[in-house]
Amino acid sequence: xxxxxxxxxxxxxxxxxxxxxxxxxxxxxxxxxxxxxxxxxxxxxxxxxxxxxxxxxxxxxxxxxxxxxxxxxxxxxxxxxxxxxxxxxxxxxxxxxxxxxxxxxxxxxxxxxxxxxxxxxxxxxxxxxxxxxxxxxxxxxxxxxxxxxxxxxxxxxxxxxxxxxxxxxxxxxxxxxxxxxxxxxxxxxxxxxxxxxxxxxxxxxxxxxxxxxxxxxxxxxxxxxxxxxxxxxxxxxxxxxxxxxxxxxxxxxxxxxxxxxxxxxxxxxxxxxxxxxxxxxxxxxxxxxxxxxxxxxxxxxxxxxxxxxxxxxxxx
Length: 316
Hints:
Number of domains: 2
Largest sheet: 10 strands, antiparallel
Distance between the termini: 41 Å
Shape: elongated
Number of strands: 18
Order of helices and strands: EEEEEEEEHEEEEEEEEEE
Helix content: under 10%
Strand content: over 45%
Structural class: mainly beta
Number of helices: 1
């Protein structure tokens, strides 16, 4: 994946006279973003020039890049532009659309050509590969690759409600996540902070409906908070982790015959700082907490879900 800004200098037409020729030009900057295999999107920057398309798709071809002005209409062919492009690269442009025009005046002539330049100062090629969020999360925690951020996840307090059928189900989560800062001096009392979270999602689930509750005073096991693959402050601040999150919840338990109260447990993976709450592979930090829970359900309960929600850092 990459993105870059490109300067387009296009001569659409030319007015000819005995004294001098006048070119009708379009000089704009465009943003091109995407990948080597499938192309991507492009758009005009700043104030768009209405004489050419304002945005569209682009596709790579063996000898350059074609900018499209609609679902299938070709707008311009950037000859010799590589994918990914090279900073400072230049080349010729052939314009397909608006298309060659027939003018009433013999003094006007269609040109439809120009030049492009990849602007070296506005160049991000390539993006670092971003594995799926859960892949990086596993590597950070179990393979001990993620950078320790000085905090440990200690416990949670909250509830969940879920309903499953035919191997699938939906879930709602709300509660608080508690963290403890690593003490730098022996005997020094550790600083504690907490986040509140609300999330919803779904995944694999046994048939049935019910809810669960976990208390912060119950014994739990938590992992260290480790850095993800997106930028955070240096030195690190917990405020960086507010906003969109993902919560992986793996739970199970049993209740009394016919349904009712019971006991069980869950392991919850917290993925902080996910862009727009989507599984795009980017996140700022992650950690796990596992512990017991009280169940109120119709029969047994078990499932594995992915939930999307918001994290808010609570005041001290």
